[in-house]
């Protein structure tokens, strides 16, 4: 299958190209701003689907809206209809319009005209047309300081540059670029369109938030390198925002240092803290060194020896019952501490021992729930 992409060098176009390149059954044919629209009929003869992503949204001259949005779309419609007349092939067109098409401004009018041209081709030649009135699309490779608050905030905050928030309470609706591309691919693979009451294709999920909330959230991503407390980045909007923020990091910021605490026993390093799922750390111990020697009332921990050999010893704080076990980096095995049992870990090998540690809560110096009681 050959997929023609207009606006291939744009934000959505670059992401689409990458996704298509991951498939062996699709070849992307790119049409960019540098190409002559007169090439469209020839490209259409070999295309099986068109992703019409080209458009103008921040021109020097408002008249460019017409040329970049309406005129190009009309040229594409003429080529698609001509192909249908000549060969009977009805090449599907997926078009990225904008919610601005419902607004009375030059950009919106040009997008509305493009929509009408495509729907006209659908009526006269039964061309399969899928029009998306997209809200604010965000994700990797979106141009900052242009027309995306998310891109601008991510770019500037990642570099320690100021951002400007005129109205923190201003609402904004967002859709993630990967979700847009996923819907495109579904349509390319023959999925049935999912349209709203006005006949426009729908991408889900869409996220409603405010400009102030966006700014605060992204500022929090940057601050997490100092506090080590990571946000809930596993699902939904925050997952997509965090991935977007990280994509704007300059190369020199790909890595960052974390505090290291050392004493004659070895070192202790906190790696990551979460709001409600504890923290991750690691520590080392020299040969013969014992660490721990305390108990907890509620706090729980998981230890994983990743290098060396360790002996864990436990004693029940009420009954005096004891338990002992040995584990090593050669056989991954999680050892859990149990509330009410004092415990320690000794390096019984000849080399330095390295142990990964998860605790179910972030360490609170005011209420550490850690009471010394050597075995």
TrEMBL record:
Residue runs in coiled coils: none
Domain NAD-dependent epimerase/dehydratase, residue spans: 3-189
Pfam families: Epimerase, Polysacc_synt_C
InterPro entries recorded: CapF_C, Epimerase_deHydtase, Lipid_A_modif_metabolic_enz, NAD(P)-bd_dom_sf, RmlC-like_jellyroll, RmlC_Cupin_sf
Highest taxon of the lineage: Bacteria
Domain Capsular polysaccharide assembling protein CapF C-terminal: 262-371
NCBIfam families given in the database record: UDPAcbARedWbcJ
Record protein name field: Capsular polysaccharide biosynthesis protein CapF
Organism of origin: Paraburkholderia azotifigens
